[in-house]
């Protein structure tokens, strides 16, 4: 049995409600979402939770706690990942051979089109020393840095996959076409109208 503990004094992040249905070897769902799924474990879970709060105005974020890394609850993870476009793993561990790598293997062997961001300790030799909060910030693992990295991931992804549409003429037909493409999603739309108003002067 391997138990990893912090230095002491870490905040208790799990309430009675969040752990009442927790079972051995099963994931612990802390928050449901639709856009971005955060997967974390250990004391870094606090930064993950704060990052979801920062992003809440733009994205609906889910958060699960992997309190049992081995065996990993693969079936439950797959059943949740399939509902998201983006998965972010956060761990106080090397980005190699940890939680992020395990989730990446699960995604790679599935048929899901999911973009993953692995946040952890970079695979480099560091000469920095300091308190935990300082080191987290230096490695881009504090809540604010995590939120920025997630936003950057989504913005860059949209640039790659979004189709572009240039609609000439802002009359009723042009506005209707732009509206339909917006409803479909996945379109970067530019509407060009030489007049002062669009929609035949109704807007």
What would your notes on this structure say?
- The protein is an alpha/beta fold and 203 residues long.
- The chain is built from seven helices and seven strands, in the order αββαβαβαβααβαβ.
- The protein has helices at 16-19, 45-55, 74-81, 99-108, 132-138, 143-161, 172-184; strands at 28-31, 36-40, 61-65, 86-94, 115-121, 163-168, 187-192.
- The strands form two sheets. It has a five-stranded mixed β-sheet, sandwiched between helices. The chain has a two-stranded parallel ribbon with strand order 6-7.
- Helix 2 packs across helix 6.
- The longest helix is centred in the C-terminal third of the chain and has 19 residues, at 143-161.
- It is elongated.
Name the features.
alpha/beta; 203 residues; single chain; 21% strand; two-stranded parallel ribbon; five-stranded mixed sheet
Summary of the model, kept short:
By secondary structure, this protein is of the alpha/beta class.
Rounded to an integer, what's the Rg over CA atoms?
Answer: 21 Å
Mean of residue pLDDT values: 85
The neighbouring-strand order within the major sheet is 1-3-2-4-5
Q: What oligomerization state is this entry in?
A: single chain
Number of strands: 7
From N to C, what is the helix and strand string? HEEHEHEHEHHEHE
Described by strand count, sense and barrel closure, the largest sheet is: 5 strands, mixed
Question: Would you identify the regions where 5 or more consecutive residues have pLDDT less than 50?
Answer: none
Give the N-to-C terminal Cα separation: 67 Å
Number of continuous helical runs = 7
- The proportion of strand residues reads 15-25%
The share of residues in helices is 25-40%
Any idea what the shape is?
A: elongated
Structural class: alpha/beta
């Amino acid at each position: 049995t391997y138990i990893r503990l912090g230095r002491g004094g870490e905040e208790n992040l799990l309430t009675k409600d969040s752990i009442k249905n927790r079972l051995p070897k099963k994931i612990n769902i802390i928050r449901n979402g639709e856009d971005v799924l955060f997967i974390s474990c250990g004391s870094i879970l606090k930064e993950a939770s704060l990052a979801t709060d920062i992003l809440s105005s733009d994205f609906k974020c889910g958060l699960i706690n992997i309190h049992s890394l081995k065996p990993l609850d693969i079936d439950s993870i797959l059943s949740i990942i399939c509902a998201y476009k983006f998965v972010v793993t956060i761990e106080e561990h090397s980005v190699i051979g940890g939680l992020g790598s395990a989730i990446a293997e699960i995604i790679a062997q599935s048929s899901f089109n999911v973009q993953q961001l692995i946040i952890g300790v970079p695979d480099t030799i560091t000469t920095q020393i300091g308190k935990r909060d300082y080191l987290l910030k230096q490695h881009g693992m504090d809540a604010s840095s995590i939120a920025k990295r997630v936003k950057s991931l989504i913005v860059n992804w949209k640039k790659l996959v979004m189709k572009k549409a240039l609609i000439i003429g802002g009359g009723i037909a042009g506005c209707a076409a732009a509206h339909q493409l917006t409803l479909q999603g996945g379109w970067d739309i530019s509407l060009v109208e030489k007049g002062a108003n669009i929609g035949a002067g109704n807007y």
